[in-house]
Each structure stands twice: as structure tokens, then as C-alpha cells.
Amino acid sequence: MTQPLTLRRDAEIAASTLPALLAKADHLASGVLLGEHGRRRAGQGDDFWQYRPMMQGDSLRSIDWRRSAKGDAQFVRDREWQIAQSVILWLDQGASMQFAGTKDTESKASRARVLMLAMAILLIRGGERVGLTGFTLPPRRGEQQILRLAEAFSTDDAQDYAPPEARGMIPHAKAVFASDFLGDIDAVEAALAKAADRGVRGVLLQVLDPMEEAFPFEGRTIFESVGRTISFETLKAKDLRDRYLDRLNERRDRLQQLCRATGWQFNCHHTNESAQSALLWMWRAFDGGAAR
Amino acid sequence: MIGALGFTAPWLLLGLLALPILWIILRAVPPAPVRRMFPGVVLLLGLKDEEQISDRTPWWLLLLRMLAVAAVIIAMAGPILNPEARDQTASDSPLLVVMDASWASAPDWRAKISSLEDRLSQAGRDDRPVALLRLTDPEAPVFQAAGTLISRLTGILPEPWEPTNAMIAEATNILPEGDFDTLWFSDGIARENRAPLLTALEAKGSVTVFESPRSLYGLEPATFEDGAVQLTARRLRSGPEQTITVQAIGPDPSGNETTLATQDLSFAADVLDARGSVEIPAELRARIQRFTIAGSRGAGAVSLPDDTLRRREVALIASSQNREGLELLSPTHYLERALEPTADLIEGGLTDVLPANPDVVVFADVATVSEGEEALLLEWLEKGGMLLRFAGPRLAASDVSRSEEDALMPVRLRAGGRTVGGAMSWGQPKALAPFDAESPFFGLDIPSDVSVTSQVMAQPDPTLASRVIAQLTDGTPLVTRKRVGQGQIVLIHVTANAEWSNLPLSGLFVEMLERLAVSSITATPEAADLAGTTWQPAKVLDGFGTLRDAQNLPGIAGEELVTAALGPDLRPGLYQGEDRSLARNVVTSATELTPTQWPDRIPVEGLSTSRETPLAGWLLALSMVLLFADVLASLALSGKLRGARVASLITAAAMTMGMPDISHAQTDDRAAIDATSELRLAHVLTGDDNLDGLAAAGLKGLSDVLYFRTSIEPSDPIGVNLETDELAFFPLLYWPITPDQPTPSAEAYAKLNTYLRTGGMILFDTRDADIASFGTSSPNGRKLQALAAPLDIPPLEPLPQDHVLTRTFYLLQDFPGRYTGRDIWVEAAPADAELIEGMPFRNLNDNVTPVIIGGNDWIGAWATNASGMPLNRLGTGFSGERQREIAYRFGVNLVMHVLTGNYKSDQVHVPALLDRLGQ
């Protein structure tokens, strides 16, 4: 039985991170110049797209008389198709994301959260519907959704390497998956396959700590996962470096290959780089995806 | 006891058996791994270590730890190197210690005493009574407890003499009753009187001899021959080639004892003596108090010089030399001949020679001296000078000391003197009467052919008899003497040449001069010569060769001084006689130095004692070092020791150890090659970074201009530190002046002056022509005056219109920099330079001016940045650029002038120049 008092306290603790996260994400998002996010084809919307000769089937009401009066033919004024997209996000909240190589660097989880929330803010301000994969938070519009997303992102998963959540995918929606992708690659593959089946395209953002790229270890070492479920002992960590890096690159290649096969885009972001660059890349990749 | 190693607690060594068990235990403990959180661990799963490093401790680490533990165990067992054997055949008979204790024992006296102390301690442990007998100072030995004797050991010192026969006889007599064993500490020199004592000692019990195998050096008294001090050293044992250093020690002018001269003497292989000579100036020679062999202790290694080494300084004053030629008639000729071999002669006027403080002043027929000279002479006489006067025609003719006794004459003289045995006189030439016992000449043989034909006569006086020290057969005085203060005046009543007497031709003359201590004795006097004299010891040597004051030692009779053997009554040292001093040295040419030959039955031991050396401390230290190495190794194994850090530490240590010298030398060479491989302009570093940067930029701009316009292709300019850098590499030094730059040191000024004298040029730039014309008291101008004061700068003048600097490359009359001040000063042209007919130039074939002084801030105008754009704005618009161009032209002319000198001053160029000038 949950005591009201502890519930309240936990809620306060949980909520206390929200404003900071929101502020950070907001700040990050404000760096991206938000353009009108049209579909680059004629359709329903407010903006002028083109004039075209009237064809059979066009109602008389759709004729633009002002343009037509300049000549003999009747012209129809097309508007750009503006339709709200559904964007579904998946953020790896597994324990492995809480790793930070040194005291000074941000943990992977917090960087990924900020990036995802900033992306969500950008998308929602662009008029899109944003939600999470799965059934916990379906895509919706509005500022309120940002708060809900922030809350959802603020929870941690005790599981060491969380598999991607591929359920509840809305057909032809857009998706953003952020994780370190160090866990089971088959689950990623299955999720992407499922997404491809539904016509969902999107972005894979791999967030890594610089230490995971450098492997600066020497001597006899026992490596443990953050959740302490997996451990590995070596006598000479230095010798493992090359082979570890090979495996890491192999993993990255596989992810890229998966993305190519399914029409997704892949990027690797390190926590010592600036968050802005990753956000810009994501936004551009996303916008580009929207044009297609 | 294992060989030379013993243990105080050998049972503890059983602990070494536990080492194998420890080995097994330690082996099982691997180094602790580091636990690291790492999400990438999934990628590592399945990887295998390539090298199979065991997770057990590596064998070498184990070995290290084992060694550490073993070292501790062994250390606890108390190992001792060279433990003293405590099981020698103990004898409980008393022990008599016989010591030669002569000067020859002194060099290794300390070793003897410590060796003796060992033996005495041993005797103390064995409860044997001990007694001590010193052969140089025999006293009846009394057996006593060893501890009592040990406590007295420091007071037992060697004597500066050797045991004489009498001493040995006494020692034999006072040997204690009963049986005893003997330890004889010998000095290593063979003496005949050893044998009887040895026999007597052997009759009482066993005899063991201790003798140092080291060689021994003796220094013979120095002699003076051929203008140099002759030194002879001898050694006891022949051996390989060897060189020793002999030092002459005496007071320096301020009275502190110092080494006045040194001379190396080399013993050839298997030769027992070494000779050498050293030339020492007379002034220094007179100050020498002793000669010693450097690094050798003992009275034998010291020799004291006496008067034999000292040459008297004799000033010869003759009456005015108005006689030409006729050397043999010169009043001083025979004196010079007699004194030259043994004395240093000084010639010159009286006032010139007296300040040199001669020992003797000789007046050869000098009648009067001026009052001032007389006062000086009297003062000098009071302090111990000796005035030796010879009579002669002038003295006889003068009124000196006629009615009153002259201060500088010993007696009054009767007018005219007398002549005997001549063609116009009665009587025979007079011979010399035998000398009285009181006379200093007593004992000299008088040759029968010495006669006197003329003399000056002394006026009979009450004091006359006491003043006569030699007279003729008829009782007339020949030599009279008067004491004045510490000095004396001696008058010889005949001439110093052969005019009045043939005395100066005889050997007696020389001997008389010697007796008067006018000339120095060259050989040690015979006993007979010294009979009846008494000599007072002034300084005596102790056994270690230290010179001490004689204090209240009694005087010695002259004949004993030279013949008697050294002993407590006649210590080696310096003895003072009436007029001179004599030295008794320990080692003379007669001293025999031969090594002892002991009979085979006598055991002879060296002095080296192998002392007990406890090793526990060393072993414990070793184990600490091993454990420290273990810590490092363990850290390294578990990856906690960063290789890079260690490497950097080691490199840093290595850098600080040996590198700097090499690198310094290398950079010196490199800098020199850099500076000289191409022509480089140079500026003096002022310590002001901005200004130095500007100077570099300015010279760089000028170098570029030179490169583009002329055949001079300078490399990058260089900053010169006056204190450390070589200046000779640079033809031109640009020296910007700031009020606060440091003044160069004296060495730097010396370098600068050499630089200026050998053709270098310095361009001083006060950089203040905008606010002050040169020479007024701007801060920079004052600083320039201060800086240039010690420099060797010739007279200067404002740059004349026809100076070669105006036409070495460009034809210029203005020399602007950033400012356009007119005053530029260069070396002044010679005053006699003339204008050549029909030419606008004077004929000036002078050298390159060593300095140019101005204040136009040329570097400011020349300075460019890396891309060649000027750094400073000059004036406005085109006129500013024109000013910069002229500034560059001045720079080109300047460098041309430095490099080509007065080439353009040659009149050959005049027609071409006139053509260009349009005249």
C-alpha cells in the first residue's frame, strides 16, 4: 500500500527534474530556426503553392478569378498540403545509458533525454503530433504533450540494456530512436523491420560516451555492466582495445546497414560533443525525411 | 663462521627453511584486479586474453619477495664480516709495547695508535697487564691495566728524532723483570742498535713487529746553487716511478702563512732519491720558512732553510766615477767580484737603494753624504743595517770625522793618513796582526803576503780600543766597528781596490766579508768554526713536522749544534746566532734511509686491521629496497602504475642529471653556426619585449629591402644578449635606448670594446627625435650617455655633408626614421682633411665609423609585419611613404657602409658621382 506522504515525496522528486530538463530542452530547441514545415506538394493548407489550369473535376469555387481574368484560361490556386505528422519517439532508459565516463561528462541518458525532448519541442511547435512508441503516450499536439513527454523521459529503467519498443507504431509515422545500441542488436533489427513494414521512417541516434570509443584501460580488470548483471574479467585490458574497437565499429556498421535497408538515417553522437550539432543533424535529417 | 663471515645468532638462519612454504602461500595470491563499470562490456564478451599471463604472482615478483624475507632473516641472525678471532692461543703473560716513536713513525701514527688500541683492548679482554716503552724517550715501563694505557694513548706522540744508541742502551737497562711478550711498533728504518734490544726482548718472551709497508719520504735541506733553490727528496723503499710535490711555505705580505712556491720531484723507478730545482725570486726566497712534502706528515718531510738560502742584498755606493776605463782600478771592482757569487748587489743612488732595505750598504771611498741621506742612513742603521765603509784618497783628504766623531764613522781620523813602504817613505809595508779572540775575524788564517802600504789613521780615543777589530802589526787599526742601535758601522782603513793594500786581492778579504755577514755563507760551517758560540733555538719542529716556538729551551753550544745527534736536548729547528741563523734538519744528506730487515723468526705484521663489520644494517636496508621494488612491481602488474608517468619521471631525472652541459654546448655551437652561416643584422636586447619585437621587425624590414634592392642578402635578424652572446659574428649592432634598460656588466663592456676596436659598428638610437634633439637631457639621451661612458668611442661630430654614408648606395642628405631629426653623430674626420680642388668631397679615406648615434627611430620606420606591410604610420599620405623610402635608403647606405667601408670614399668614383649629382 502506497503511503500518500511517500507518494507525494516521490512525485516531488520526480517532478523536480522536470523543469530543468524542460528548460534545457527548450533552450536547445530555441537554437533551431523553425521553418514552415510544408509537404512540398499541393494539398490542404493555408499557403499558396501554385496556379494550375483548371481541370475536369475542379469545382468552380476553386477557380482563382483574379488570375484567370488575366487570360483566357481558368486557373485554380493550389495551396500547399499541410498536414500534421505523427512522430513517435523511443528513448533508451536502460541502466547502461546512465554511464558517464568521467565525473565531468554528462551521462548518456541525460544527453539523450535533452536531445529527445528538444526534438519533441521543435516538432510540437512545428505543429506535429508527438508521442512515444508503445501505448503509454500516443502522439498528440500541444504544449501539454511536452510536459507529458518530459515526465515520461524522467523515469529510469532498471533493466541493463533496454530493447527498443516497437509496438503501437502508427503507419507512415515518423520515428526517432535514441539509445547507445549496445544491447541485443536483434531486437533493434526486429523493431526496424516492423517499422519498415508499417512504412515508418525515422532516425537512429546512437549516443556513446567518449570512453566507450577510447577504451583507455590497462592491466587486470573486471568490467561490469551498469546494472551489474554482466561482468567480464581480463588480465591485460590493453590488449583487448583493438578487438573491442573492431566490435564497436562492426556494431555501428550493422546499424548503418539496417538503416539503409529500411530507409532510416543513422548518426552517432558522443556526449563530449555539443548537443546542438546532434539536434541540428536530427532536425535536418528529419526535415529531409519529411520532404520525401 | 663461514669464511670471513660470522653470525651472532646462527640459529635464526633456520628461518630460511620456512621460505619454500612462504613461496607457496605467496604464489596463490594474485594481484587484485580493478573493477570498472563499463557498458561496452557486452562487446567484450567472448574475447580471450592473447597472452596467458597467469593470474598468479609472476615468479620474479615472488623471488623479489623471497629475497626480501631472506635478507630480513639473515639480518636478524646478526652477520658480521671479519669477526675477530677470539680463540687465539691466549697467553696471559704481560705485554710490553715498544714503540720507535721517531719522526719516521709520524706519517702513519694514527694507524699505529689504532692498531695498538686494538691490541690493547684484546689484552684487556684477556686480562693481561700492559706497559709502554718509547725508544725515543725511554722511561721505565710499568705494567698496568690495558684500559689505563688506552686512555693515555692520545697523549703519546712521536718525537722529531730517532732513538740513539744511548737511548737504546737505557731502554735495554730498564726492561722490566720477569717474562713478557713484546709488540714492537717499528718505524721501518734500519738501525744498527735494533739488534741488541731485540735480543734482550726475545730473552723475555715472544716478539711481534708491526711495521707499515708504506714508503717514507724525507726532504733534505734546500741549497742555493746556480741561481735556483735545489731540492732533494729521498724515499725509504724503492718502487715504481713516483712524483711528490714540495711546497715552500712562508708568510705572504700580509703575514698569513701561504705556499710561496711548489715544485714536483720525480723518483725514477727503483731510484731512492729525486732532485729538482726551482727558481724563486730573492724577495720570496727570503720569506720562505720551511719546505714540506705535500701530503706527507712527519718532521722528516720538512726542511728548514737558514742563511744558506738567504742572499744578502748589498748596495754598493762609490764616489763619483770620474775615471774612464781601468776597470781594475775601480773602487768597487774587487767588492763586486767578491760579493757577486753570494749576495745580490744593488747599485744606484743612496736614496734609491735605501727604500729597498738592503742588508748592507758599502761606501767605497765616499766621504760625505747630504744631511737628508745621513738621516735616512741612521734610521736604517737603527733598524739593523750595516754600513761598510772603505777608506780612500777622498776620505783621507776630507775633513769628515776629524775633530768630532762623525755619526757615520766608527772613529775619528787623523788628517792625511799615512803611507809606509813607498818610494818616498821610510819603513816597510805593514802586515796584519793576528786577530783577537773578541774579533769577529778570530780564527782566520792571515796569508803572509798581505800587506798594507797606505791607510787612514784613527785618532787615539778612549773608545778606540774597543772599536778595533783588526789591526796591523804595528798596532794601528785596520778595521774599526761601532754599533748604532741594532746596526753597525764598519770602517776598513784601506781602499776597496788594490791601491793601498793587496788585501782585496787575497782570499782573506772574502773570508772577512763573510765573517762580517756581508756575504752569505754557502756551506754549513764546521764545528771548529763555531767553537765557543752559543745558539739560541728560535723555532723547533715536533714529530709531525709542525714548526713551534722554542719558548724556553736552553741554548746550544756551536760545536754541538753541528755535530751532536738530534735528541731531546738538540731538537731539529732553527737556531739563532749572533748575526745569522742555522737550521738543524731531521733528514740531511748524511741520513741513512734503509728499510728494516727483521730476522725470519720475528713475525712482522702490517698495520691494517680488518675490523669487524656488522652486516645486519646493510641487509635490512637491502630488504627495504627489495620491498620498495616489490611495491612498484605490484603496482605495475595491476595496471595502477602508469607507464607514461614513470617514464616521464625517469626522463625528467635524467634531464636534470647530465643533460644540461651537453645541450648548452650544443646550443652554443648551433647559435654560432646560425649567426655566421649567413649575414644577419643584429639588435641589442633591451629587456623590453615590445621594443625588442619592434627592433626585430624593423631589421627584418630592412633585411627585406636589402634583399630586393642590393646584392646583400641578409637572413633573419637576431637579438643579441650582450652578457652571453658572442658579438664578433655581427657587422652591425642596432642598439635602441630605453631609460630603464639594464647597464651591461664589466665583462660585457670589455666585449663591446673589443667589438668596436675590431671593426664592429653600433648604431645607437635614442628614438626621441620628436621630443628632443640629440644631446639634450631627454631620459633616453641621459641613459645613452650612461651606457656609452665605458665604451671606447672616438671623438664624434655631426654627420658632415661629404661623409661616405651619404653616398655608399643612394645619394642622401637626410636620414629620417619615424622622426626627421637632423642630428646624427659619427666619428669625427681628421682635422687635416682637405677639400680637393674642384670636388665637393674632402679626401677622407678613414675607417668605418665605429658608432652612429641618432634619435630618429629608424626601426619604427623600417618595421614590417610578416606579410611585408609597414607596422607604423609615417606622416600623412605620400610624404609619409617618401619618408619611409628615404629611411630605407638610409638603412641600405648604412649596411653598405658597414660592409664596404670607405670604398665609395675613393676618389675613383668621384666623376661618376659628380655626373649623377649634375655638377
UniProtKB/TrEMBL annotation, chain A:
Superkingdom field: Bacteria
Alphabetical list of Pfam families matching this protein: DUF58
Domain DUF58 residues, every copy: 50-252
Protein name per its UniProtKB record: DUF58 domain-containing protein
Organism: Thalassococcus halodurans
Taxonomic lineage from the root: Bacteria, Pseudomonadati, Pseudomonadota, Alphaproteobacteria, Rhodobacterales
UniProtKB/TrEMBL annotation, chain B:
Matching Gene3D superfamilies: 3.40.50.880, Domain of unknown function DUF4159
Ranges of residues in domain DUF4159: 680-899
Originating organism: Thalassococcus halodurans
Domain named Aerotolerance regulator N-terminal: residues: 5-79
Transmembrane segments: 6-26, 59-81
Protein name: N-terminal double-transmembrane domain-containing protein
Keyword entries, A-Z: Membrane, Transmembrane, Transmembrane helix
Alphabetized InterPro entries for the sequence: Aerotolerance_reg_N (IPR024163), Class_I_gatase-like (IPR029062), Double_TM_dom (IPR011933), DUF4159 (IPR025297)
Pfam families xrefs: BatA, DUF4159
